[in-house]
Amino acid sequence: MKTHLVRTHRSAEDFPKDEHLAWRIAEVATDPVDVPADTADMVVNRIIDNASVAAASLTRRPVSNARAQAQAHPYRPGATVFGVGGRFSPEWAAWANGVAVRELDFHDTFLAAEYSHPGDNIPPILAVAQHAGRSGADLIRGLATGYEIQIDLVRAICLHEHKIDHVAHLGPSAAAGIGTLLGLDTETVYQAIGQALHTTTATRQSRKGEISSWKAYAPAFAGKMAVEAVDRALRGEGAPSPIWEGEDGVIAWLLGGPKAEYAVPLPGPGEAKRAILDSYTKEHSAEYQSQAPIDLARRMRERVGDLDQIASIVLHTSHHTHVVIGTGSNDPQKFDPKASRETLDHSVMYIFAVALQDGTWHHEHSYAPERAQRPDTVELWNKISTAEDPEWTRRYHSTDPAEKAFGARAEITLKSGEVIVDELAIADAHPLGARPFAREQYIEKFRILADGVTAPAEQDRFLDVVQRAADLQAGELDQLTFTVTDDVLARAPQLPKGLF
User: Fold this and answer.
1) Do you know which InterPro entries this protein is assigned to (predicted)?
2) Is 288-424 assigned to CATH 3.30.1330.120?
3) Each residue's pLDDT tens digit, 117-163
4) How many helices (DSSP H) and strands (DSSP E) are in the chain?
5) Is 356 exposed, middle or buried (0-12, 13-18, 19+ CB in 10 A)?
6) CATH homologous superfamily for the domain 2-278
7) Which of 30, 79, 207, 444 could form a disulfide with 130 if both were Cys (CB 3.0 to 4.6 A apart)?
8) What is the pTM of this model?
């Protein structure tokens, strides 16, 4: 990996284009290096993972609305949309599938200086691959780039510190991945990256306070913008530049300011793209920093015994967990029994309480209004707080995989005065966890989440095709989706009509 120092440059400075971060990223995207076998295998795992959570969310209102918007834009050759037949304009297919993948907060994750769900790259890159008639090998190359660029940006550039939503790293990565997929030249990819970043910077209010369905829509919007940015760049349209380093660019006014400097690692010429191997998926449908606490709660419940005897629980954890999903956020909504699913998903206090009571976690039942409003749950929930621990913060930011941690130490004080303490650094499903996910677990997750949604024969067909993704020929990528019956779609809520 080669590290690039990135900072603001005054307009009067001599700052050649080939030193711009967007150009460096475009060079990575256009490097014809082969995709390693383990990277390609993991890409297939994540395509399965995305389809799993899309199936589970298919009839939820935000997903149904996004799908209806896509269905209003039929197009040939076009791209597929989860759940329905037909082909649709690729940017709208990317939009609908992006919402389906993101709605339940249940696919893959990478956390470093920033946090991310790099599986959000799959819907836009796959949609363009289907529309453009590309092969499975082309798709895997494009996805390897998308993952690489988003993860490398996440390693280096913190967005949430400046209240910028993490999808600001997704627009450029998806544009770069599409560039690799299509075999575009460096100049075209450079312009697309600049446009994609410029149109996908927004504040973090989408993940603050009363969290709405836009939390799922935001990454889908970034993917849609990436598709449109590539289309414009192919037509010869340019982008603001230098987009990151300009005097009025992203770093100067949205991030650390004119004096800030970021060290961004990127693969050198001829170096394989392997970043996807550093990311990890979720066993539980909850914010990633909740994964280890859920497993910890399940482990501790037998030692605690009678939960009515709990006086208080303190989760000692990282700064990020404390201020984003803990009591350090100062969000009263995180203790509201009538809060939205999206808000409950971002309350580690609620999540720990339910996991401690139930000994399990379910993507629907654990968030149901009647579950959140149970009096004994509300009582326990309000006994839980978080506290920042410098050691957990250090481990959160560690670059050493053996030290990096996203967990917590739980101190449960009983009414008797006894204190029960346990900790868990990483989730069981993490590559270094107690039960790491491999192909078998990805398939099992798909089977569980697609049960009752997609017919068994359609599940079998999809799993057969996706595991042969690398061998799919041009024009065969439309098989990388699934359909459901009208009876399943009828479970979706009645929707008001929009503009189209």
Assistant:
1) 2-Methylcitrate_Dehydratase, MmgE/PrpD_sf, MmgE/PrpD_sf_1, MmgE/PrpD_sf_2, MmgE_PrpD, MmgE_PrpD_C, MmgE_PrpD_N
2) yes
3) 999 999 999 999 999 999 999 999 999 999 999 999 999 999 999 99
4) 20, 10
5) buried
6) 2-methylcitrate dehydratase PrpD (1.10.4100.10)
7) 79
8) 0.91
